Amino acid sequence: MGCAYQSNTFCSRLDEETRKQLCVGCHIKQYARGKNLLSGYWKNKMALLLDGMMVMVESDVEDPSKTIANGLASGGDLISGLVCPQSTVGPRTTICLFDCTVAVFDERCTAALLESNVAFIKEAYTNCLHSCSQERAAMLRDVGCKDAYTSVRYVVHYCREHGLPPLTHEQIALVCNRSRPKVTAVLHELIRKEPGLFQPLETRD
Question: Which of 47, 186, 36, 164 has the alpha carbon at shortest distance from 106?
């Protein structure tokens, strides 16, 4: 019987033999919505988000009592691992925005694959290039460096593109580093100006 999560975008790109090798060292972990996970949960191990949505937050270097969201992850994204760039800003926490399922792989298993399996190396680095680099760059651009409208729009667009349920206003405020009233006001404006953002992708012409 196959893994219930084998169709995620990372594992589905691997050949059958590589998937079997990876499955040997795979441990499935379940985390409830709202759970805060420190980066040490997967220290020196590769972790893959199979289902759900997470936001990565770090301490504000100017005000350690505050946190700043700087990354999002959804099903199929590597959220930790030997090939993912690590934080250099400050203590990093991952918050589960929905119930999350994570695959944590034995380090000996992934190390062996990274040493000998070119196809696995390619997929791992491609995944990290997108989830740890390109997506974070997009978030920094649209959330960290632009106005509230662009910031909230990024989050709504992200959820739609990844087939995720809409976030609450409070969750969007967390991701956007904005106040909840401001998020509510922007959402009303978005609904008026860009109603298509709130429709499922399959209804597009």
Answer: 47
